[in-house]
Each structure stands twice: as C-alpha cells, then as structure tokens.
Amino acid sequence: MASKFSILLLIVFVQSSSWAKSASTLENFIQCVSINSELSVPVTTTLFTPNNSSYSSILQSPVFSLRFLEPTVPKPDFIFTPLHDSHVQAAVICAKQFGIHLRVRSGGHDFEGLSFRSESQTPFFLIDLVNLRLINVNIEDETVWVQTGATNGEVYYKISQKSNVHAVPMGTCTSLGIGGHITGGAYGAMLRKHGLAADNAVDALIVDAEGRILDRAAMGEDLFWAIRGGGGGSFGIIIWWKIKLVRVPEIVTTFNVVKTLEQAGTKIFYKWQQVADNIDEDLFIRAINRVVASSTNSTERTIMNIYNGVFLGGIDRLLKIMQASFPELNLTGKDCTEMSWIESANFIGLFPIGTPIEILLQWKSAAVPPALFKAKSDYAKTAIPEIALEGLWKLMLEEDAPIIMMIPYGGMMSRISESAIPFSHRKGIKFMILYQSNWPEGDKNATEHINWTRKCNFL
Fold it and tell me: 23 pLDDT band (50/70/90 cuts)?
C-alpha cells in the first residue's frame, strides 16, 4: 500500500513539475515576444493554451485531415496567432532563446498534418498565420503581394475585383493556404498554360532562424530557389509571396462529362491518358475516378470516370479541339458552360455552377469538407495499359470509398527545366496521380484504409 502511495505521489509531482515548467515557459515567451515585436494589443490576446475555450476551435477549424485531431496525436502546448510580421520575428527569436520547438501553419490543408503536430519534438507550440492575410494587387506591373495566411480563394477574388483578364496559376482547392502551397510548387488548372505558382513567384519575405526578415535580394538566389518547391518550412517562415499575374480571356469554358465502365469507360480513360498532356495547352482535363452504385444492378458497384475540364477560350474552339484530339469523350455544347475565369475557380474547386464568387472569401468554406482520409501521390511517365486499368478498377472496388484523381501535365510544364526550381516533375511526366481512401468517424479499420493507398503505388 505504501509503495502504491509513493508511486501516486511521484506521478503527481512529475505532472505538477511539468505543468509548472510549461507555465513558466509560456510566461517567458509572452514577455519575450512583447519586448521583441511591434504590438498594438497585448500578446495574451493572440495566444491560446488548452485552458482557453477557443483553443480547440482554433486548432481544429482549418484542419483538412481529421485523423490528426484524434486524442492520441500530440497537440501544441499553445497556439500563437501573430497580427504583424514583427510578431513572427519575435516568435522565432523567443523560441530559439527558450529552446521551444515550433510548427508553422498557413492553411492547415496538408494531408499529413505536419504543420500543426509533432511526434518527436515535444513540447512544441504552433504559429498559426491565420491573421496574416493581406493581399495587394498591382495591375500596372501585373503582380500581387500576398501574406501567407491568405487562401487561394481570397487571392482569386481580390484579383477579380481589379481585373477580369488577370489571374494567378495556383491550386484548385480554394481554402488552401498560400504559404505552404507555393513552397510545395502549387499546381492548378492553368499549369499546362503557365506552369506552377512557384514558377511565377518573383519575390518573397522570409523570417530566418535569426529572426531577420529577408527579401529575395537579401536572402540570395540559392535560398530563393530552394523555397519555391523545396518546402519553405525547412528554411524559415515565409510571411509574404510576390507572384506574377498571368493573362486570362474574359470568357472561359468549363465542362463535366461522366462515364462508367459500362459505357466503355476503360477505353475512354486509356485514350485520355494518351491525349491529356499533348492536347492544346489552353485545355485542362482532370480525371476523377470514384466507386458508385451500378445503374444496371443496384446490388453491385462500378467505377465512374469524371472528366472535369477548364478551357481558356470559348465553346466553339473547344469543341473543334476535342473533336480533333479526343472524339471518344463525345463532348457536346450541352456539356459546356461559358463563364468568367473567377467563376471557373469556383467550378474547378467543385462548387456547384452558379455559386456566388463571394464564397471564395469564406476561408473555412470548401466544396470538399474535412474528412478522415489518407492520400498518396504518384507520377506516370507512360500510359497505364488497359489490362492494368482493369486491375486498378478491381483494387478500387475492394475499398469502401476510394478516389483516384489524375492531373495532366505537358504544355508549359514540359518546357520548364527540371532544375529551374526544386519541383522537378517536368518533361516526360504525363500526369500526376492522387490515391485517396476516405472513411467515416468510428470506423475501426483506419490502418486497412491507409494500407490500401500504399497498395496502389505498387501497381
């Protein structure tokens, strides 16, 4: 009995010591940030601990992959939400001074939760850039400066309010944060015409390990090269990007065409692989493959192939291109809708046609909501043979709720050198593949679903 009581006292002592140390670290951090930054409000109003009622909502609200919010996943000791560039500088200086590990989150869209969790570096805190979302559009020199807490959708909207013939070639997901997006390359529906957002980045501001803010000239060309596609969190905290605007037509055309295996889906998909990277570079055709109930037998499932397209031009020219290069899809005028480029950003983001563009300003809004899922990517240099596609469809039918999406490359992506920036997937890549498995809350087979995505890589 005495030994059990001694163990209990030891546990209480260790926990009390841990809490005391954590509280002391927090107090030191608050004081240090106050000294080292330009503050118009007390630091405590931008800092949240697990004892704050807002902590959970701030941690969870932008998270896209919900499996990293489960109780077993380590959480940050506190969350700091800077209101000014100098706050980020101060956070870096103070984290270094007190030996606290940190994570940086721009939008929370990363599939593996690396921006807000840490398995080995504990204790740690989170710098959430959610309040740093200024966007300065300059139509005269055709550039935009963007703070890295802003989302794709916000940038698209702000540009559209200044010009209907300018845009930036960023991602299709409108709730994606700019900071991590561009550091990973940032592909979107205009990659075949204009390359990646990282290809069009012309300057940046980064906070280095010493807490200094460096622009392109100050950081040097080697570092500026590295942060565009090499993972910016490895080199510092990027707080602003300057991106070159690209010209878009006043009218673009969008379409969705759906095929199933019963409608010669395999042969049509095989042809898509042959043409998607070689077709006119004004045309982007994404292929999304899902499992659905069969229309001929309600007790069986089949594969649905969705061809989701955006064309930088009008319907008439699009139909001529498709008839010449991809007649198997049988695209007609009835399948197509002409709209402005900003409206197409909603469309390719999977919002229903007619959704007001103001939805782009609602940074927590996404056509595809957060979920429990695992996703992996791959790259194809040759077309997958029909017999192998049959094997892929069979693998999909073994899983509960899989998605396999293909993003076509070619065009500008093939003309940019693989060493121009760290994103090396260029000439010779036909398309990118995303394998994804989703499962509902309470599903006890998460490991099996995760393993399914890994099987796909070995096809």
Answer: low
| Average pLDDT in the chain | 91
Say how many C-beta atoms besides its own lie within 10 A of residue 412's C-beta. Answer: 18
What is the tens place of the pLDDT at every residue in 233-260?
Answer: 779 999 999 999 999 999 999 999 999 9
Q: Is the pLDDT of residue 121 over 80?
A: no
> What is the CB-side half-sphere exposure of residue 222 using CA atoms within 13 A?
1
35, two tokens: 């000294």
Say how many CA atoms lie within 13 Å of 109 toward its Cβ.
Answer: 27
Q: Tell me the CA end-to-end span of the chain in Å, nearest whole number.
A: 59
C-alpha torsion 7→9→13→19, nearest 10: 100
- Checking if the pLDDT of 18 tops 50, the result is no
Spell out the residues 6+ positions from residue 213 whose beta carbon is closer than 8 angstroms to its own: 85, 89, 205, 206, 207, 239
- pLDDT tens per residue across span 70-120: 888 889 999 999 999 999 999 999 999 999 999 999 988 888 888 898 877
Q: What single letter denotes the amino acid at residue 413?
A: M
φ, ψ (nearest 5 deg) of residue 431: -160, 155
- Check if the beta carbon of residue 135 is closer than 8 Å to that of residue 150: yes
Residues 47, 37: Cα–Cα separation, whole Å: 14
> CB-based burial of residue 69 (10 Å sphere; 0-12 exposed, 13-18 middle, 19+ buried)?
middle
Least confidently predicted of 52-61, 197-206, 377-386, 402-411: 52-61
What are the structure tokens assigned to 365, written together? 């809004």
**Model's pTM, two decimal places?**
0.92
